[in-house]
């Protein structure tokens, strides 16, 4: 099959129920919800949406409930930006997943996720013929590793770059359990918190020397590129030969950090699609674009409302 998609994103598509609150509750406490919104979400789905809005030819693979309200919303929102949904899988036994998000006035959030049908995506749902139509495969945030292992194996065999943005659902399973997946990917995008949890590091232990020491473990497994997103500090880009801390994009105000990592991944993928070389300067440009997209995202409520137009990328 000739390649027709810039990227195929694989993972969870959920609906986020976002509650805006003055503060997060203490134990045995109650807070007033000033505003309640229903928004499409899920890490891989957010990245797919952002990629499509950035005018990349994008498809999504994930599992939702058949003919339920949340699933219909997810499909409708994908259609708005032309995410291809031909590869969606449907469950007759489980409803579309949802996440309950409490967001305070400082933009800090608490999330309770019910994966629902999303976590029942199986390795049998991953079709080699479909994946062969992609230039890049992006995997994100499913507790069930089997479909990701299958997708990564296909990517390796077909020489399609595989990008993993694991999320805590994967990281909390521990290095031993996820090692096989890490050995099959090309690019790992991981947050500072995920990095610390994976290597059992405290905040104080997370410094440049220890970080660079730990990154060697990734490169020894065959990973070509590592990006650690650092929030207000920007992102650390590392390859076996070079590393650089790339500063964040300056923003006016943080409104909601939900989806910042997903937006970063979309920006990085955009850069990679426009120059697929793993040369450090090209990767550096992709990280800068990722920082820009993430910065615009967190200036708005929700994981998708702040994604800029593709023309804005030329300004950075």
Describe the structure.
By secondary structure, this protein is α/β, with parallel strands linked by helices. It has one domain: Ribokinase (UDP-N-acetylmuramoyl-L-alanine:D-glutamate ligase). The chain is 33% helix and 25% strand. It is built from ten helices and 14 strands. It has helices at 43-53, 69-80, 128-131, 146-158, 168-171, 175-182, 192-198, 208-220, 260-274, 280-297, and strands spanning 5-11, 14-21, 33-41, 58-61, 63-65, 89-91, 96-103, 109-116, 134-140, 162-165, 187-191, 225-229, 235-238, 243-246. The strands form three sheets. It has an eight-stranded mixed β-sheet, sandwiched between helices. A hairpin with a 5-residue loop joins β12 (225-229) and β13. The longest helix is centred in the last third of the chain and has 18 residues, at 280-297. It starts with a strand and ends in a 19-residue tail after the last helix. The model has no long low-confidence stretch (mean pLDDT 93).
- In the CATH hierarchy, what is the superfamily? Ribokinase
Order of helices and strands: EEEHEEHEEEHEHEHHEHHEEEHH
First CA to last CA: what distance? 36 Å
Outline type: globular
Helical fraction: 25-40%
Main β-sheet, in a few words?
A: 8 strands, mixed
Radius of gyration: 18 Å
Q: What's the CATH class, please? A: Alpha Beta
- Broad structural category: alpha/beta
How many domain units? 1
